[in-house]
Amino acid sequence: MTVPAAPVPLIDVHAHYVTDSYLTAAIEAGHQKPDGMPGWPRFSVIDELAMMDRQGIGRAVLSISSPSVHFGDDRSARGLASEVNDFGANVVADYPDRFGLFTSLPLPDLRGRPGRGRTSPRRSGGRGRDHREHRGRAVPE
């Protein structure tokens, strides 16, 4: 007689988070309803973990919600990328078996690209980069 295998936990690679500073910057930039949603979601690690447990999700890879961190000013985008990456890195550090992180880049600002300061995935605990660019311009690699 064979014993049935335990179900393999799911991995969510499309899990978004927002921070208070990100929400403030997005709303001030005129993004009241992201992607046509009725309003901005709130993010709570405890609520996210509870939802993951209910849905059988063993691990989630976090990334900032659209429209990402660049709202027209390169310096502000670099600072916001740093803030949201630090927040995400802290979540990963607190729950390393449950969360991973795609770090945010201040694109199209290439001076704030990966490997430069705190936007580097290695420095922030990230495992990849979020290359979202919400204004429809091509971004050089």
Describe the structure.
The structure is a single chain. The chain contains four helices and four strands; from the N terminus they run βααβαβαβ. The protein has helices at residues 20-28, 45-55, 74-94, 121-124, and strands at residues 10-17, 57-64, 99-104, 128-130. A four-stranded parallel β-sheet has the order 1-2-3-4, with helices on one face. The protein has one domain (10-130): Alpha-Beta Barrel (TIM Barrel), CATH 3.20.20. The radius of gyration is 16 Å and the shape is elongated. With 141 residues, it is α/β, with parallel strands linked by helices. The model is unreliable at 116-121 and 127-141 (pLDDT under 50). The termini are far apart. Helices cover 32% and strands 18% of the residues.
Largest sheet: 4 strands, parallel
Please, how many helices? 4
Number of strands: 4
Strand order in space, largest sheet: 1-2-3-4
Characteristics:
141 residues; alpha/beta; TIM Barrel; 4 helices; elongated
Task: Give me the secondary-structure topology.
Blueprint: E1 10-17, H1 20-28, H2 45-55, E2 57-64, H3 74-94, E3 99-104, H4 121-124, E4 128-130
Parallel strand pairs: 1-2, 2-3, 3-4
Structure summary:
This protein has 141 residues and is α/β, with parallel strands linked by helices. The chain is 32% helix and 18% strand.
